[in-house]
Amino acid sequence: MFKFSKEVQQLLEYIGGRENISTVSHCATRMRFVLRDPQKADIEKIKGIRVVKGSFTQAGQFQVIIGNEVATFYNEFVQYAKIEGGTKEDTKSAGRQNMNFLQRLTSHLAEIFAPLIPAIIVGGLILGFRNIIGDIKLMNGGTKSLTEISQFWSGVYDFLWLIGEAIFHFLPVGITWSISKKMRTTQILGIVLGLTLVSPQLLNAYAVAGGAEIPYWDFGFAKVQMIGYQAQVIPAMLAGFVLAFLELKLRERVPSAISMIVVPFFALIPTVLIAHILLGPIGWEIGSWISKVVYAGLTSTFKWLFAAVFGFAYAPLVITGLHHMTNAIDLQLMSEFGGTHLWPMIALSNIAQGSAVLAIIYLHRKNEEEKQVSIPATISCYLGVTEPAMFGINLKYMYPFLAGMIGSSIAAVISVGTGVMANSIGVGGLPGILSIQPQYMFKFAIAMLVAVIIPFLMTIFFSKSNKFKKEK
Prior knowledge:
Layout: H1 5-14, E1 21-26, E2 30-35, H2 43-47, E3 54-58, E4 61-65, H3 70-81, H4 88-95, H5 101-113, H6 117-134, H7 146-149, H8 151-168, H9 171-182, H10 187-197, H11 205-209, E5 216-218, E6 223-225, H12 234-253, H13 256-299, H14 303-320, H15 325-337, H16 342-363, H17 368-382, H18 387-397, H19 399-417, H20 441-463
Antiparallel strand pairs: 1-2, 2-4, 3-4, 5-6
Domain PTS EIIC type-1: 107-472
GO molecular function: kinase activity; protein-N(PI)-phosphohistidine-sugar phosphotransferase activity; protein-phosphocysteine-trehalose phosphotransferase system transporter activity; trehalose transmembrane transporter activity
Transmembrane segments: 109-129, 159-179, 188-207, 227-246, 258-284, 304-322, 342-363, 402-422, 442-462
């Protein structure tokens, strides 16, 4: 006996029947469909199904939010519909057929950086903790840090750098590995390529930036600079894609009997040469240009305008999936300037959307059915995952979404206006303060308070406005 018999039947009918489903898979909370004709899906009826907490279209996929029981629901759905379920990769590949060039580019970037985010978050928290115990004068009347008066904390400070250095200095290894994984090429070759970009044999990228004399390989007819690309994003991405391209092309042409020897050799060695001769220097310049343009926008006379626009527009970017592009920019800013002004605004946007849902909980406190969606969505949002809040509640009523955007914009102006900088990407919600550099924590706390209060109050105000009376 199926647990969701009625709901499964309804979803199949409202989505346009099995003949309208190109492929289907699921993730932690959502059913992911690629539909042959998206217009056949009756969104309003789908949202009315008892177990459905919302729906949206992203990355060419029609996604239906089910919640923690999505795996059970999915198994019953494919069994009832008599269709063969696919993997998330199959769904993503099929979904790209419905996307334009920019959406496809963003989707690829997201898949490269998504596996790296947990490590980067851990690294940011570690750097933040090291700053607190090593840089803030907490002891002896505000004259000494914990590391200066305690050998234990001094040891902790030094030990944690082992992890921080591995995450950020050797980031190119993670990027080239992730690209090889995404492109379904040999992952160990991706790792080896990344290691050749950060080898101790090379002059460290930070020393290069400091003006140190650069050694070189002398081939007689040419000299190649021995520069490392620690923490560099774009050189690693360019090299990773060249390696994957060469390997895939060689696989097509080399007989299988000798491919184990020929393909890795003629893919890796030319890529390493090209990376150090051409891709590395070009990628460094591109990365520096991008980070300097963004940094100028965040520190110029008109930084308040940049912050206001970014804070207001970030939540809509999440809907389109374009927000994934900010990961590469954040990492480049960290490499160039030792931190990022951009990521704190992202955390504030998440908090603002969660606060708008909090107001809906207050306004609809007698609606027990809605609480099953709104309360978990608020908690999730405050911990950095906004989709349940935005698609399950805020976009349903629209005015909470707008209130969150306005609150985010105001909080972003405060954050950028006071120079708040994060050590790195962190947990994109209330715990995000742990990734903020210590001297800016109080200022960021004020911006967080604004991101909580303004959306909450504006949601209540909008709910009483005639323009939003229908709450549709």
